[in-house]
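User: Hey, quick favor. My workstation is busy. Could you predict this chain's structure for me?
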Amino acid sequence: MAELQVQIVTPAGIVYNHRASRVIVRSTDGELGILPGHTPIIVPLTINGVRIERISTNAEDLIAVNGGIMEMRDNVCSIIADSAERARDIDIERAFAAKQRAEEQLRKADSVHNQKQQKRAEISLRKAINRISVSKHNQ
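Assistant: No problem, here it is.
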């Protein structure tokens, strides 16, 4: 069976390193499925979950990735992310608290028409929602 190696790395270190039969990511141009033998490619990633179909457990892993880049070459799919968390490692209460904080920051930024603060709050909100969404996969 054809396989690829999937590695997800953040500034804090290696988050994920397993063999897989398929990886699905969301790039800035849309969703992208990666199979063994895929043409070499480098794409920027958005804040979203990365779905990985593992070979060893015949299961799907979901990783919350908060932006970064993905490179596919020689059956190695490398993702370098700003931050990433496996579904099983997400503290759901902390994620909901972050979502509430981001929503409050967004309301404040909107009320004073501060576009810079508004953009930061929108990114924080997307990250929190991504973590919440990915954590549900583990339940």
